[in-house]
What we know:
CATH class of the domain at 38-55 and 84-185 and 213-294 in chain A: Mainly Alpha
Largest interface: A-B, 49 and 52 residues
Structural class of chain A: mainly alpha
Strand content of chain A: under 5%
Mean pLDDT of chain B: 85
Structural class of chain B: mainly alpha
Number of helices of chain B: 13
Strand content of chain B: under 5%
CATH architecture of the domain at 38-55 and 84-185 and 213-294 in chain A: Orthogonal Bundle
Order of helices and strands of chain B: HHHHHHHHHHHHH
Largest sheet of chain A: none
CATH architecture of the largest domain in chain B: Orthogonal Bundle
Oligomer: heterodimer
Helix content of chain A: 55-70%
Shape of chain A: elongated
Radius of gyration of chain B: 24 Å
Mean pLDDT of chain A: 86
Distance between the termini of chain A: 36 Å
Helix content of chain B: over 70%
Radius of gyration of chain A: 24 Å
Shape of chain B: globular
Order of helices and strands of chain A: HHHHHHHHHHHHH
Distance between the termini of chain B: 8 Å
Largest sheet of chain B: none
Amino acid sequence: MTSLPAKVVDTEDLTPHVSMLTDIWRRFRRNRLALVGLALVFVLLLAAALAPLLSHYDPNAIDTSIMGTPQTPSLHHLFGTDDDGRDYFARMLFGARISLEVGFSAMIIAVTFGTFYGAVSGYFGGWVDSVLMRFVDMMLSFPTFFLILAVEALTNNFSIIVIMLVIGLLSWMSVARLVRGQILSLRERDYISAAKAVGAPDGRIMWRHLLPNALAPVIVAATLAIGNNILTESALSYLGLGVQPPTASWGNSLQKALDPDVLGAPWLTFIPGLLIVITVMAFNLVGEGLRDALDPRSSGGRA
Amino acid sequence: MTNYLIRRVVGLVPLLFGISLISFGMMFMAPGGPTSVFLASSHPMSPVEIANIQHNLGLDKPWYVQYFLWIGNMLHGDFGYSFTDGRPVLTKIIEKVPVTALLIGVSFFFTILIAIPTAVYSAVHRDSVFDYVATAIAFIGYGTPTFWLGIELIQLFSVKWHLLPDSGLSSIDSTGFDLGDTVRHLVLPVATLTFVSLASWIRFQRSSMLEVLGEDFIRTAAAKGLSRNVVIFKHAFRNALLPLITLLGLYLPALLTGAYFVEIVFTIPGMGYLGLNAIFERDYPTVMGTTIISAVLVVVGNLLADIGYAAADPRIRYD
């Protein structure tokens, strides 16, 4: 079967030349759910970016005349007002900013650190790998959220930067494991031996040959991490150990959910929760779509 | 198998050592340190008094001495005393374990009961309407904050319709143990925890089933004329169950976290409720105790899952 060649080459020449990105997009587009997710992500990013333009209300302005009696949603107040007489639509828009900021920043911290950690572990192997991976095992043994909660409470600093750092620095472990696994399997390939044989330094092999090939699953994990971080931030803020009032966040809007004033105004609880669900779902849909699109071997089985 | 077991159990020692070191480091490096609790108390203390307290608690010793004292005590079952009520931390935690275990156990039972048939049906009827709906529900489940779902259920079933209790595990006026009453109290918390867990199990079991269905031995079984049901249930399903054992180990931390949230929203006195209150009250010994015991539960769970997997899958060799 080794001498079949001419025709195979011909058919390959017939396929139009497409760049890698076009190819990925072509496959991504086939997944309708992923497209819905992508559209939702765009809407959210736009809404967050244009928050001050989309609502002329100040999210923190208290209207004392209606304090204690939340107004039902109306044309004036699209999402009504909360128990402090603040426009809820404006608060939700600015809450979107917080969620996305924390979601993305914490993801970047976790992915950067996790990739570096996993790459070092996988590339050097041996005892370096053993030590580094045992540490990952230890960190993964704690219920992560509880750890984040405890650290956040102990630092007793609830600025957005600290929240991003705490979430990011306590959620890099799965990325590290992922990258290490990729590197371990890649470094045995012939092209790496070839690079070593011609004397390429470790750093170059890592940057030019290993990491680019290990990128696909990292991109997927990064997308899914954004959703997770948003969930974590909302939970922290709900418990009062995250974004502090009066700054609006979807999570801290739920703090008073079971107070008598708010119980009579169910939309005040329903809206922020629904926004969280939609946002996290959107990122997860995109992530799963990317998983299929980035891996040409998958037949789209994880629709 | 025995060798494998011994190796795994021996491997736990450094892991547990590391876990204790991380927990200790976390508390040790906290700004203010444990004495900040006393400093914040109502009556202001002189530097001498503070030094005395630090000496009594051993906080004036170097960190490694403190660590070894602490871990030495812990190995004897002494997790220290709660800063808030002075009771032994271990006792406080142990009396909460059954509550959390009950919550996790019951909802896990329902999760599996719903997730497995759903996932198998989805995989066998891939791309059907049912499959799409199940997938959609799974994605919604992934994105649903546990605490929010709990709040919404309370709002509907307790506040609006007065059907079910919104907190605790028994009514205040109940005398002794009343099964019906406990069950009524468990409905909403268990429903919450089950729904948020469903997503992972449906997705995982579905892809595991799809993978097995694509294997050569399934084609062989179908080709030699076995009925569809026999192929699906006897050949595919059994093999697709194996990876679930691993997921159980991996999922345990998330399950604990979920249970903690449910306890907080429904004011159920379990480990999560205890741990969260300890965090708020800066009750360091209790926080450390809850953290470590949670981690140990996860480690033991993982070990059991690995052993279970090795026992269930003859392809795994122990040497």
